Amino acid sequence: MSKPKVYITRKIDAKYLEPYQDQLEVRMWEKEEEPVPKETLYQEVAEADALFSVLSDAIDEDLLAKAPHLKVVANMAVGYDNIDLEACKQHDVVATNTPDVLSETTADLGFSLLMAAARRITEAADWVKQDKWQSWAPFFFAGSDIYGKTLGIVGMGRIGEGIAKRATGFDMNIQYHNRSRKKDAEERLQATYVSLDELLETSDFVVTVVPHTEETDKMFNQAAFEKMKSSAVFVNISRGKVVDEEALVHALQAGEIQAAGLDVFEEEPIEADHPLVGLKNAVCLPHIGSASVETRTKMIQLCMDNIAAVVSGKEAITPVS
Ligand code: DGY
């Protein structure tokens, strides 16, 4: 009997797929960093029972209409704003994501960005690399303290809680805003629920972990940045589209806020000549929130386990639809 066919949209080392080889027939795009061209993807999904996608693949009506056998799309990310869930429903395709396994790693990255932006780490490291370091001076690369400051977390899900947990070690005053109150998190993490406006006005660090939806689209806009302290550091590890980047550039240039740490952008990959990349007070990373070897391994396993479950007629482990 022929095995269910899986197409993977990025090269993944064979060792991760070995446990599934008796059960599944796997084909993949053989390039690690280059996205699969649309025509190739459309040809491949015509035969596929399952698709293993990454967050930059658009899973939309166009693609699903070309995939008559498709039963499951396993997205290697916790976010799934690249997937048209309504179209999946219409085509009877289950969509899955990779929650939980990446929360701590992504929180690590969020806190690293917060620290890097506050203490001007990348700017200072570049100074040494460029052989510009000549002497020591009282305010040479002086940034701002983290210890004891007020942290505002927008979106208190698992990653938000991870950031709060780290902040307790820095004796930070933790406040958060979320669609619903999280009373248990408030107790566990000594976090205070505040309105979004209060959070923006009173936090020294504003970290956003909200998913990108119609409601959160460009929620960090000119009005939001104007409410923040001029000493505030803004960190985004969710999706670029929750920020109005033009407004952010203006806020950073005009000193409306002090600095930003950004792992995600409206358009990815961001071009090197984008105004944000050129700013000294912006630390820009290439969307590496969950990028540790341990976590990426777990994400691959979870995608493959979701696929194996659905194609064998079982419930998906982590469905989003
Ligand atoms: C995701 O998986 O959605 C996050 O962007 C982690 O980097």
Written account of the structure:
This protein has 321 residues and is of the alpha/beta class. 35% of the residues lie in helices and 15% in strands. The mean pLDDT is 97. (2R)-2,3-dihydroxypropanoic acid (DGY) binds at residues 55, 77-79, 102, 106, 287, 289-290.
Name its key features.
2 domains, five-stranded parallel beta sheet, 12 strands, about 15% strand, binds (2R)-2,3-dihydroxypropanoic acid, Rossmann fold, alpha/beta, seven-stranded parallel beta sheet, about 35% helix, about 325 residues
Strand order of the largest sheet: 8-7-6-9-10-11-12
Give me the strand/helix succession.
Answer: EHEHEHEHEHHEHEHEHEHEHEHEH
Beta strand %: 5-15%
CATH class of the largest domain: Alpha Beta
Q: How large, in whole angstroms, is the Cα Rg?
A: 21 Å
What ligand species are in this complex? Answer: (2R)-2,3-dihydroxypropanoic acid
Structural class: alpha/beta
Number of H/I helices: 13
The N- and C-terminal alpha carbons lie at a distance of 30 Å
Fourth-tier CATH superfamily name of the largest domain: NAD(P)-binding Rossmann-like Domain
Please state the average pLDDT score: 97
Biggest pleated sheet: 7 strands, parallel
CATH topology of the largest domain, by name, is: Rossmann fold
- Which regions have little confidence, pLDDT < 50, spanning 5+ residues? none
Query: Judging by the overall fold, what is the CATH architecture of the largest domain?
Result: 3-Layer(aba) Sandwich
- How many structural domains does the protein architecture include? 2
